Amino acid sequence: MRPRVEEVRIQGLGVIDEAVLELSPGFNVVTGETGAGKTMVVTGLGLLFGGRADPSRIRPGADRATVEGTLVIEAGGRVAQQVEDIGGEVEDGELIISRTVSAEGRSRAWLGGRTVPVGTLTYLADDLVAVHGQMDQQRLLQAARQRAALDRYAGNKLVKPLRAYSQAYKRHKQVGALLEELTTRARERAQEADRLRFGLEEIEKVDPKPGEDAELRGEEERLSHADALRNAATTAHTALLGDPMEAAGSPHDVISLLGEARSAVETVRDFDSQLAGVADRLAEAGYLISDVATDLAAYAESIEADPGRLAAVQERRSVLSGLIRKYAEDSAGVLAWAQQAADRLTELEGDDERIEELTREHQELTDRLTELAAELTGVRQAAAERFGQAVTDELTALAMPHARVVVQLTRSEEFGPEGVDEVELRMAAHPAAPPLPLNKGASGGELSRVMLAIEVVFAGADPVPTFVFDEVDAGVGGKAAVEIGRRLARLARTAQVIVVTHLPQVAAFADQHLVVEKASDGSVVRSGVVTLNHEGRVRELSRMLAGLEDSELGRAHAEELLGLAAADR
């Protein structure tokens, strides 16, 4: 499903007090008497999609102008995803866009219920609408758009070589960046290699082991306090088992006291089971204390003051601490740094060989890109000639028989993502005139017709789903006007088309006809925008033809125009 504009609400813009336009998916035409505010419809759509805000367009007496649009889009599609990415909401496939302009010139925009910069609307509009009016920046006047449109017009013949070119270009950029890094940063990389070698040599000389720093810290603590540790163990051992040098009969050690306690309860344990349990626990305590006393004795025997070993441990710790301060938080981290440094050094030491390989690959890719770019240019040139002739033929039917459109391809000095071709649409107003860029080679009214011709030729190739035209019929009439209407109807087969016109020949081809009527005070109110049925269209076309809604001759001509348009479909 292609996105389309379903409804537009305009308040306080120009002569419009309040107006609501309900639009169909196909060809929509807006007509009305001069000064009724038809052009404000195009102005409102321009504001809705990020156009320049002009406070002078605000209706006198109003403090702001507001335009709100309801768009039907595909849920989960590209546009919906863009809206959701910025925090907006799409409900049931409908997107609400709103724009206000204050009398002081301040502008605010909302997208899917979220306040956004006006530039966001402009960005989104690239995928939604092309507004062609004399005061609007034309989408196809942008160089990048012109090349993209020509590529789509070229069709399948360009797809395969462009895909191959894009892949080669991406690799060419990667290789070029690597080469630049390797060659321009040679000094920095050499200095980095020297630092890594120094670090690896320093670590290799010390040869740290995983966890060694923690083990040495513990050993230093024991050696530094050997006497205190031995005395503590001996004292504790004496407290538990007693001093063998003391006279017997005055036991104060824990084991003796536990023995007395156990003997006291053992004699009566059979009289109470609770006391028997206590006796068992006293026995267990005696065994435990004996084991602890044995361990204390062994520990006291193992502790010896060793000044030489203490000095060696302290020296080793000092060396390890130096490495840890430089490279990591502990000895394991130092070893991990050494492994990473060795890998990086291997990479750096292979730079010369790597540079040679990359240089060879870069040249091969350059040659390949040159071939593919030439192939792209050939396909584009053929498409450009077909396109230029097709647009020129369209302009002949649109009352510009002497105009000629050409597509100029200029070769860039550098490879780009899409090749080396710079594409520019140019127009010569008459045979003796040189082709000039579109915005210089055509007047405002002519430019709209040129854009219509281009859009008709591009129809189906250009993904923009909604086209808006104002002044597309300026300065033409008769047969040329019929041809304009016919081409707008043709464009509406693949896109939504919204046209403001004063020509009945154009309006007759519309799928939906809206008329803007002023109230008695000269303003356009909510009821002033009417969707016409067949009888209403006959009356409006008769007014546009003869100036009289009920003229028999005008009505007959209007019926004839509507019949011609219907037959052409």
From TrEMBL:
Keywords: ATP-binding, Coiled coil, DNA damage, DNA repair, Nucleotide-binding. The keyword Nucleotide-binding applies. GO terms for cellular component: bacterial nucleoid. Gene3D superfamilies: P-loop containing nucleotide triphosphate hydrolases (3.40.50.300). GO terms for molecular function: ATP binding. It comes from the Bacteria. One of its GO terms (biological process) is DNA recombination. Residues 6-521 form the RecF/RecN/SMC N-terminal domain. Residues 338-382 form a coiled coil. The keyword Nucleotide-binding applies. Belongs to the RecN family. May be involved in recombinational repair of damaged DNA. This is DNA repair protein RecN. It comes from Nonomuraea zeae.
